[in-house]
Each structure stands twice: as C-alpha cells, then as structure tokens.
Fold this protein.
Amino acid sequence: MATTTSVTDVLRNFSDYINRVAYRGERFVLTRGGREVAELIPRPAAGRRLADLPQILASLPALGEDESLRFAHDLEEMRRDDGTALPEGPWES
C-alpha cells in the first residue's frame, strides 16, 4: 500500500525517499495542493522469480467494486470488438 506525501516533503528529503523505495520497496503517492499528481514506486528487479508473484500481486492496489465492474465491462467490450467471445462455461478457454 502506498503512503501519501507532498511533493515538497519529497523534495526536502529526496535521498531518504529514494532509499526507502529502492531498499525497502515502499511506494509513495505524491500530492500537490491536495491533489494526487504522481507515484514513486520501485522499479521491478530483473529476473524476478515466479515465487515472487504472490507478493507482487498482493502489493498492487485493490480495485473498488465500482472499478471492478467497469474493468469487467471494458474487457467484455474489447473482446466483443476483437471478435473473441467470452467462454460460455468455466472449463472453456
């Protein structure tokens, strides 16, 4: 989960924030005037292992119910436009 902080605070303590991102894997949402403007996140390491996948997925922000429904709708729309239909049953793919 990301911590929200101001751009001004990041600028004043830049090396500390960079170290926290690089060595601790922390994430920061940067705000200016109370609005979110950017995100400071770790760069994915080359050669990650499949065993790292659960931790990577757990670190992603969760979608709210409304966002999940919009995402599902967008996927259906793309598949329809693509001509690829959704599977009818749970075992079809």
About this structure: The chain has four helices and three strands.
